[in-house]
Specification:
CATH topology: L-amino peptidase D-ALA esterase/amidase
CATH class: Alpha Beta
Helix content: 10-25%
Distance between the termini: 18 Å
Number of helices: 5
CATH superfamily: L-amino peptidase D-ALA esterase/amidase
Radius of gyration: 18 Å
CATH architecture: 4-Layer Sandwich
Order of helices and strands: EEEEEHEEEHEEEEEEEHEHEEH
Shape: globular
Strand content: 25-35%
Largest sheet: 9 strands, mixed
Number of domains: 1
Number of strands: 18
Structural class: alpha+beta
Length: 323
């Protein structure tokens, strides 16, 4: 059902990934665990986000570290899965020491996948817990798994002309510096090959084969079918072994969005809730500018891998079906 990538985000020591998938309902969640804690940041660029604990990650706020990041389907309903991640971590005495208890810090972001599969099937606390139990530091499954189970691409003309998205991961290295990314690919726009600029997944033409080219086609649709655009977002996590401050982690998350913009056309729209998190484990020296540049590369590759690993589901064809 899915491809795998050994050179993904789990190439960063201390980072684990686990998926929980509802293949019938076409939804799921993906957890990125950092049991020892990692300095965390976030940048939300889309205008329709469904998120949790993002305010906590502002540079001026108290808590420096997160212990997991949850990426989930189910729209805002799916954020309930974070309770299961918190329970899993609390059982293992992992969290921010608040004196009377250790409080696991679990930021989260959701994609809207209710337009495919069963709209009543949504990740919950039990699914979040299951994703944690499945987490490991080995090869990361890609495609129709976890939060990528119900991901779709190119929805200008509605779900009937959309394609299947998924989850992808990638890793970059410069000496001892490691920067990995995992991304759930569920955008309003098209995914393009950064090497050629050609669309590889996106809105299909209303008549005949080929792609409509969302950016060009928007001029004839915007204002007449806005309600049909609901149901998008790219969410992801960048992890690095670099030593970063909280402000620097936020800067890396900001720079990582450059990778999104390189391969999504158009990106960061009013119909997307794009959000990227950073986790920095602090085991190696790393210039923030270099970390951010590598993060952008890893995000771009992870997005392309996510659509190429996807399989058709819920009536949405995959890249492999168009060859």
């Amino acid at each position: 059902m899915e491809k795998t990538g050994a050179e993904g985000i789990t190439g960063v020591p201390g980072i684990e990934v686990g998926h929980a998938t509802d293949s019938a309902g076409l939804t799921g969640c993906t957890v990125v665990l950092c049991r020892q804690g990692a300095v965390a940041g976030v940048d939300v660029r889309g205008s329709a986000p469904a998120t949790r604990e993002t305010d906590l990650l502002r540079s001026e706020n108290l808590v420096e570290q997160a212990h997991a990041v949850l990426l989930t389907g189910g729209s805002a309903f799916g954020l309930n899965a974070a309770a299961g991640v918190m329970r899993y971590l609390e059982e293992r005495d992992i969290g921010f020491d608040a004196g009377v208890a250790r409080v696991p810090i679990v930021p989260a972001a959701a994609i809207f996948d209710l337009g495919i599969g069963d709209s009543k099937a949504r990740p919950d606390a039990e699914m979040g817990y299951a994703a944690c139990r499945a987490a490991g530091a080995g090869v990361v499954a890609e495609g129709n798994v976890g939060a990528g189970a119900g991901a779709t691409v190119g929805k200008l003309y509605g779900m009937s002309r959309a394609m299947k998205g998924g989850v992808g991961t990638a890793l970059r290295q410069a000496g001892e510096l490691l920067v990995g990314a995992i991304v759930v690919v569920n955008p309003f726009g098209d995914v393009v090959d950064p090497a050629t600029g050609q669309i590889i997944a996106g809105t299909r033409r209303l008549r005949g084969a080929g792609f409509a080219d969302t950016t060009r086609a928007m001029a004839g649709v915007i204002g007449r079918a806005v309600l049909g655009f609901a149901g998008n977002t790219i969410v992801g996590v960048v992890a690095t072994n670099a030593r970063l401050s909280k402000a620097q982690a936020n800067k890396v998350a900001q720079m990582a969005h450059d990778g999104l913009a390189r391969v999504i056309r158009p990106a960061h729209t009013m119909f997307d809730g794009d959000a990227l998190f950073t986790l920095a484990t602090g085991e190696s020296a790393g210039d923030v500018t270099l970390v951010g540049a590598l993060a952008a590369e890893a995000v771009a590759e992870a997005i392309v891998r996510g659509v190429r690993a996807a399989q058709s589901a819920g009536g949405a064809p995959a890249v492999s079906d168009l060859k």
